[in-house]
Amino acid sequence: MVKKTTSSQPEETTEVMGAEAAVESAVETTALSASPADESTPVEEFHAVAIRVSVRDIYPQESYGRAGYRFSKGNPTEIAMAELPADKLTLLYDDPWLFVEFITDK
């Protein structure tokens, strides 16, 4: 809590919201304003079987290596999910130079 005081006015207390509280407030607001899902509508599940990775056009070189793989701008590389540990998937997905697409079973 931050107190803001001026000489001509009585003490005024202003509450400063932290980042966590702001996120919680936004989530609650979104949850309240979102319409409930229609339970009679079936939800179709998709499972990723592979990823397709390519280098973004903004990267200054034609190829880029990451997580033991080599990627290029013009030729996307496909990697099966069974061959890719979760930590390497996260590393590739979070890399700003790479474009990752999930290939699903349907």
What's the topology here?
Elements: E1 2-4, E2 12-14, H1 19-33, E3 48-55, E4 63-66, E5 69-72, E6 77-80, H2 86-94, E7 98-104
Antiparallel strand pairs: 1-2, 3-6, 3-7, 4-5
Describe the structure.
This protein is α+β, with helices and mostly antiparallel strands and 106 residues long. The protein has 2 domains: 2-33; 48-104. Helix content is 23%, strand content 31%. It has 2 helices and 7 strands, in the order E-E-H-E-E-E-E-H-E. The strands form 3 sheets. A 3-stranded antiparallel β-sheet has the order 6-3-7, with helices on one face. A two-stranded antiparallel sheet has the order 1-2. It is elongated, with a radius of gyration of 24 Å.
Could you state the order of secondary-structure elements as H and E? EEHEEEEHE
Q: What structural class results from the helix and strand content?
A: alpha+beta
Query: Which overall shape is indicated by the principal axes computed on the Cα atoms?
Result: elongated
Mean pLDDT: 73
Give the distance, in angstroms, between the N- and C-terminal Cα atoms.
Answer: 53 Å
Strand order of the largest sheet: 6-3-7
- Total of domains: 2
Strand content: 25-35%
Radius of gyration: 24 Å
Main sheet makeup: 3 strands, antiparallel
The number of helical elements comes to 2
Question: Which percent range fits the helix content?
Answer: 10-25%
Q: Which spans of ≥5 residues are poorly predicted at pLDDT below 50?
A: 9-17, 29-34
Number of strands: 7
